[in-house]
Task: structure prediction
Amino acid sequence: MSAAKVKRVVGKYELGRTIGEGTFAKVKFARSSQTGDPVAIKILDKEKVLKNKMAEQIRREIATMKRIKHPNVIRLYEVMGSKTKIYIVLEYVTGGELFDKIVHHGRMKEDEARKYFQQLINAVDYCHSRGVYHRDLKPENLLLDKTGDLKVSDFGLSAISQQQIQGDGLLHTTCGTPNYVAPEVLDDRGYDGATADLWSCGVILFVLLAGYLPFDDSNLMNLYRKISVAEFTCPPWMSFSVKKFITRILDPNPGTRMTIPEILDDEWFKVDYKPPVFDDEDDTSLDDVYAVFQDSEEHHVTEKREEQPTAMNAFDLINMSKGLNLGNLFDADEVSKRETRFTSKCPPSEIIKKIEEAAKPLGYDVHKKNYKMRLENVKAGRKGNLNVATEVLQVAPSLHLVEVRKAKGDTLEFHKFYKKLSSSLKDVVWKTEEEMQTSNVESKQFCA
Result:
């Protein structure tokens, strides 16, 4: 395997693949060149921050989050700034999303669901006590570390670009994922961030135990109506005590909704409960945060770029594989929930060309930059326009890995798109001799 070639270096961190993307930011996997430790780096565009007059608010949020050192919340290590970007260095966890655990194994037993819910409430309680609200709590934002403990990601950062607190002390911006959003958020009359987060926690607990959403409808207005009156039914396998518990949390009236002290005192919740033990001393330096927002050139971090496919080493392959089974990484037919990968012996320019030729007839606008592409469906689906991000990475001089990832839109639409795309890329995808025999492919692979 070829030695890793630097694609992009920011300060002491070598940036790798994109692992998350949003309207105002993207998150990249990175590794410290000094220690070799993996981190996740959230990248904000300074121009967008200034244009939306969010600089001071984001500075406060980042400063607050840097002080939060809770075992069930992703750590914020440091902040760096360049002329055009803000880089937020975060803890990188390897256990995947709690959402994937439900997808692959189905609903949980009450003991297992309770353990995760207890850890979620611990994190929410701690952050609320410091005036930090998430407002987009859902299983996809709940990660698991290598020991299987829950880590809440983006707490205080997921909604910093939209947050608006008006004179009445209430939040007034509708945000979050509709199925998990509290009714008062949808009413657009102002809401309390703490009670809104607790509603989302209740929906999460229901999903863990039921394996499906309590509020779901293909018609958005019907969905909002169900949420506004808390129209849901618990499945028969739930115990009476947990049904009662969930019903008290999913109270459409935020004034009578269950509070955190009441949750902590509930008999169902208290079973095997272990309060978190951690060091909460505030010895955190905020010098880097102040330096970034003073925007002084002497504090700008150095950036290096190379316009070529990123070379991957063994550590990158292991991080991208499932449970260290590299066979899954190269399975062209294995489509995960939001992304998939395939290998090719074609030159990178040929791969990009083939993807573009396959995507345009499907109604996608193609935006190219170096060896990355963004495919955007001009026709909006049930969750808006489907955006697909692709990137070509170098595994060896004559072998490339192509990552195809849903950046925005509906997961089901992404699956349908990939099936159509893959049928058009048969000449590009590399297969082993065994796979070629299995699929009765007699001709040599294109560009092999």
